[in-house]
Amino acid sequence: MMPDKCPYCGEGFGPGDEINPGIQAAHTECCFRAGAGSLAHLQGRCSCFVAGSDEGDPPEMTKRQAARAALEYFRGLSMPAREALLTRPLLSEGGDHAYQA
Ligand SMILES: [Zn+2]
Ligand SMILES: [Zn+2]
User: Fold this and answer.
1) What does residue 5 show for φ and ψ, rounded to 5 degrees?
2) Distance from C-alpha of 55 to C-alpha of 72, rounded to nearest angstrom
3) What is the whole-number distance in angstroms between the Cα of residue 42 and the centre of ligand 2?
4) Relative to the alpha carbon of 97, which ligand is closest?
5) Residue 6 falls within a domain, yes or no?
């Protein structure tokens, strides 16, 4: 059963969309963003890495646009760079903003 909206961004599914079926179908970029964090998080600009930073999803983007920006950035990295990025130590363990849906 296919829901008619993505649970992360709230947008519908279009014919050209990449969809991650999972337990709950969602756009592939939205699944990625929910698990891996924002573009600022991937680039190490958020408060997980920089004390006092309030960088998050770019304010001018919709949730889905921001999710796509994060995924595109990640896809542009080499495998070792991806590996290093996903295993970085965080400044604060409570950097929950990065994983908010
Ligand atoms: Zn979505
Ligand atoms: Zn972060």
Assistant:
1) -135, 150
2) 18
3) 7
4) 2
5) no
User: Average pLDDT for consecutive 10-residue bins of the chain (101 residues)?
Assistant: 85 94 91 92 92 92 97 97 88 53 38
Burial class (CB in 10 A: 0-12, 13-18, 19+), 54: exposed
What's the domain count of the chain?
1
Question: pLDDT digit string (tens) for 42-51?
Answer: 999 998 889 8
Q: Which two tokens stand for residue 29?
A: 């970029």
Query: What's the 96 CA to ligand 2 centre distance in angstroms?
Result: 7
Domain encompassing residue 39: 19-93
What phi and psi, each to the nearest 5 degrees, are found at residue 74?
Answer: -65, -45
